[in-house]
Amino acid sequence: MRRKFVAGNWKMNTSFQSAQSLAREVASAVAASNPAVDVAVCPPFPFLWPVQQVLVGSPVALGGQNAYHEKSGAFTGETSLDMLIDVGCQWVILGHSERRQFFGETDASINRKIAASVERGLGVIFCIGEVLEDRQAGRTETVLETQLAGGLAGFTATQLQKMVIAYEPVWAIGTGVTASPEQAESAHAFIRNWIAMHIDASLATALRIQYGGSVKPENAKEILSQPNVDGALVGGASLKSDQFLGIISAAAELARV
Ligand code: PEP
Fold first, then answer.
1. Is 7 helix (H, G, I), strand (E, B) or coil?
2. Quick check: 181 and 222 in contact, CB under 8 A?
3. C-alpha 65 to ligand 1 mean position (Å)
4. What class does CATH assign to 5-256?
């Protein structure tokens, strides 16, 4: 059985102080309840280190929201994967739709970032998902296929063992509109099948696929109980500890049944 994985993407939110308090609240509640679920938080770059300090000895992992594929050098404003590892990150989110939409990331540039992460052994949360126009035109699977083929071109199953895929329909991100459990399950099943057909069947069976898009404590159980949904990538609701912890509890309850 795949262990569920709930990750919080804090995006460009929090301050030094609020990032530490949020991490402290999440870490102490997770340590106390010891849920059978993996948990990570992904703060903005300047707060990775202060949050890491709070997470020392905690089961909550730290992740970056992006990284550049080059090792070092004249790349003003960029953050390398080695820098993320250096401050204690175990995960990096790559290919988020906001990176694709506002910062011109392409399947090819995401592929380079995944390659660099794989080389360094950092866990990747690889985000894919269709915009509303594509869903309405019946192109969801075509879009997912293009993003999977482009982002994962050239990798072997062994290289992708630590990868997690986040299916995030763009129309559900930050909108309050969640994909129905059926829509999520169908996209997740498609992704798993694509991995089995084009990369490796055992990788597909073990692969964790998170759902992302307006997940809240109220809808978490229904979505997370779908057979191919193995966790959640949470934006807005990860900024409030009670909401994020509510989603973790919903995942933990399902792990017990
Ligand atoms: C996200 O940005 O990854 C996300 C899922 O955001 P939200 O939960 O706010 O829709």
1. strand
2. yes
3. 12
4. alpha beta
